[in-house]
Amino acid sequence: MAALANLQLPTRRYALGVSLPGEALKYFRYWILAAVAISFLGPLALSRYNDIDLSTWFYTANVAKWFTAFIGGGFLAVLVPNMIAVGLTRRELSVSMGIFGLLWSLSLGAVVFAGIALERAYYHAMGWSQGIDANDVVAPIGSWSETLGFAAVYPLVYLVYFTAGALIGAASYRWEGTGWLLLVPVIPIVFSLDNALYNTEPFGPGWAGFLGGFIDDWGRGVVLAGIALVLAGLALATHRILTDIPLRSKKA
Amino acid sequence: MSFTVNLRDVTLKYGDSDALADVDLTLEAGKIYGLLGRNGAGKTSLLSLIAAFRKPTTGQILVGGEPVWENAPIVSRVALIREGGDFDDSDYVKAAIETGQIRPGFDTDYAYKLADRFELPLKKRVRELSRGKRSTLAAVCGLAARAELTMFDEVHLGMDAPTRDAFYKELLAEYMDRQHTVILSTHLIDEVANYLEEVVIVDRGRILRHEDVETFQGMGATLTGQADAVDAVAAGLEVLAEQRLGGTKSVTVATRLDAPTRERAAAAGIEIGPVGLQDLFIHLTEPGKNGA
Question: Quick one: B169 and B261 in the same domain?
Fold first, then answer.
């Protein structure tokens, strides 16, 4: 991590948090470039055989949610032994991960926002319809303002997925062998709220959206408030687990 | 400045079993300590607690006079290097070294100088390194941490003899240059014995002995001379080890020699030397011994 040179003790947690999105981007740059390329070139190839009426970016944005959860969990599980061994405290790491999650989600959200907006112009130019799969019906995303409103909540959604991933990552490291069981309460809650927000077919394990039946009728504002509340709960739980975490013994 | 270490009534449990029990230990600042113990005795657990890698079940741990747990100004100047290091295996060696820069005192130039000296391939990934090179990388990061308390836990594993020798020399040079507290946990006792000032022996989760090296060496003696003469003097003493080459015999005894015995040995042309630390360690931690 070349960006860490000349760190000062009181501010190193922030410097680390700011450097991590760059590290993640560097590590996954080819995957990300491939996803962007497929999102724009895929419809072009498919248009030779089919009518295009679904937003490819919608799928890319959905895949990015699971990718973001993986980043949150994977990075945390790797950073816990790595950073504590070089003299970082758990609280400092918790702050760094918070900054990482925030910056990552904002950046990815901005890319997806720009992608959906660009795609709208692109589809319009090609005479295609930019829609989403909404409960077995293809529904156009709508006007420019509706499109931008649709894309604007992605940073928040990514942040909740990142935090959920971080929680699972922390629990899996803390309770080797059983920590991953936290998936059981976390996935249905996050997944159902996410599906309620977009009122679409579940994108991922369909069974995990079973709570959707209870929250489908909530208004968008209430769902967003619910997501914010769940986000706060996940962040608090991750912090609590992380600040007490022991380093595992080395295996021979 | 270098750090003192104080453990007060420290117990660490894994489930129902005690990894460490009622440990009281004080280490003065600015010395090189050897931490010895059989496999599973509790050495790694003890070091993990001192480095705040884990929390004790009960008791208090002070480093530099302050509680070590979640204390950034302290843990940033404490380095525990475990066998093979705690690296992200997907990192390049260069990046793994640079991760040390989280410590404000980390000396990157020194790290690169050592990496060059120990022929570490900076452009390889950590997972591609041999066990020996990985251990060397860990040792390099530990030295370059320029910590006030540096602990090496079996870091030599996998290193070949010349690399180990170079590492010990570098460790000593760094210690002479910048006095700090060093703890070496190792099974290669005789290899490091000359570097140690004090020795702590851990046995079955408890501190069995904590003495300076001279005291340990005075706990016994090595008698070397004509086999018959040596046997005569060693008769009735507790023999730890013996070697014979032709008519010459060397016997290590775990008994402090009194003046008459010394005189008898001298008269018989027997040379009296200090006891080997390793022989004494084996004797003290023998199953069935209570360490007294």
Answer: no
Residues B25 and B129 reside in one and the same domain = yes
Range of the domain at B239: 220-274
Signed CA dihedral, A206, A210, A214, A220: sign only? negative
pLDDT at site A1:
61
Number of Cβ within 10 Å of residue A222's Cβ equals 12
pLDDT of A137 reads: 78
Q: Which of A82, A90, A240 to mutate to test the interface with B (most CBs of B within 10 A)?
A: A82
Residue pair B77/B107 in contact (Cβ under 8 Å)? The answer is no
CA B31 to chain centre: 12
Could you tell me if B262 and B125 lie in one domain? Answer: no
Distance of CA A88 to CAs B1, B105, B110, Å? 20, 13, 21
Structure ipTM over 0.90, yes or no: no
Give the model's pLDDT for residue B292: 38
H helix count then E strand count, chain A: 9, 2
Residue B231's SS3 state is helix
- The burial of B237, by beta-carbon neighbours within 10 Å (0-12 exposed, 13-18 middle, 19 or more buried), is given as middle
What ranges do the domains of chain A cover? 32-43+51-242
Query: Which residue shows structure tokens 């046995």?
Result: B203
Using alpha carbons, select from B225, B223, B74 the residue that is nearest to residue B147.
B74
A129 vs A159: CA distance, rounded Å: 29
Q: Are residues B226 and B208 in the same domain?
A: no
Of A6, A16, A78, the CB nearest to B88: A78
Q: DSSP 3-state assignment of B237?
A: coil
Q: How far apart are CA A234 and CA A236, in angstroms?
A: 5
Return the closest-CA partner of residue A174 out of A84, A248, A233, A234. A248
What is the C-alpha separation between B160 and B37, in angstroms, rounded? Answer: 22
pLDDT 10s digits, A176-224: 989 999 988 998 899 888 888 876 665 667 676 676 667 767 788 888 9
Residue partners of B202: CB distance under 8 A and separation at least 6: B35, B36, B37, B41, B42, B43, B46, B208
Q: How far is B108 from chain A (nearest CA, A)?
A: 9
Helix (H, G, I), strand (E, B) or coil at B146: coil
Q: What integer is the mean pLDDT of B76-85?
A: 95
Contact A4 B101 (CB under 8 A): yes
B57 vs A95: CA distance, rounded Å: 26
B48, B76, B88 ranked by CB distance to A87: nearest: B76
B35 and B93 in one domain? yes
What tokens appear for A132 in the block? Answer: 């989403």
Q: Is B16 helix (H, G, I), strand (E, B) or coil?
A: coil
Tell me whether residue B286 is in a domain.
Answer: no
Nearest Cβ partner for B54 among A83, A87, A247: A247
Q: Tell me: the pLDDT tens digits for B140-180?
A: 999 999 999 999 999 988 899 999 999 999 999 999 999 99
**Least-confidence region, from A50-59, A87-96, A157-166, A240-249:** A50-59
The C-alpha atoms of residue B197 and residue B31 are separated, in whole angstroms, by 6
